[in-house]
Every structure is written in structure tokens, then in C-alpha cells.
Amino acid sequence: MMAINKRILLLLCFLCCCFFISPSYPVSDTLEQSQQLEDGQHLVSADETFKLGFFSPGTSKYRYLGIWYNIPGFGQQEGGVGCQQKHSNFRKIWSPYDR
């Protein structure tokens, strides 16, 4: 019984950290002509619904441009990402859970 209470307490602490710790990287909804989007940086829509940035799925050496749902306060947990495969007509949907 005591082990279950410790697990519940640990889970509650983890959830509090996820929801109350804000991201430490700067976010903006505008990119100037001379600016570059560096690794770890994202553009966030004005209403904070979507996020744009580069990603590498799994162990891929390639970088892709993605637009995904922004879940503020949830760290790097993002929703699914759609990307157009090179030389292909089908659209692959990738999410962090596909790793």
C-alpha cells in the first residue's frame, strides 16, 4: 500500500513539473529576413496553437521542416507532424511516439 502512495506522489510531482515549468527557449511568431531558425528554436503562431521548427525523426540524419500542435507547458511533447516524402506522392505522419 505504501509503494502505491509513493508512486502516486511521484506521478503528481512529475505532472506538476510538466504543467508549471515554462519552456526555456525563446519563442516568437515572426522571423525577420536576416534571421535564421536555429536548432531548438521554433516559431509559434500568434494564438499559440501551432509551432514551426526543424526536427529529425528517430535516428535520422536528415532534418525536416514541421508544423505541429503547440502544447504549452508540456516541454518537448508535441502532437503529430506531417511531412512530404521526397520523390513520393504519399504523406507520412510522424509523431515523437513513433521512435
Brief write-up:
Residues 1-24 form the signal peptide. Helices cover 19% and strands 25% of the residues. By secondary structure, the protein is an alpha+beta fold.
Find the structural class using helix and strand composition. alpha+beta
Average predicted local confidence, pLDDT: 67
User: Strand-and-helix sequence, N→C?
Assistant: HEEEEEE
The portion of residues forming beta strands comes to: 25-35%
Query: Uncertain runs with pLDDT below 50, 5 residues or more?
Result: 75-81
Q: What is Rg?
A: 17 Å
**Sequence of strands across the biggest β-sheet:** 1-2-3-4
Could you describe the largest sheet, including whether it forms a barrel? 4 strands, mixed
Extended strand count: 6
Shape verdict: elongated
Count helical runs.
1
CA distance, first residue to last residue: 35 Å
- State the helical fraction: 10-25%
InterPro entries: Bulb-type_lectin_dom_sf
Keywords: Disulfide bond, Signal
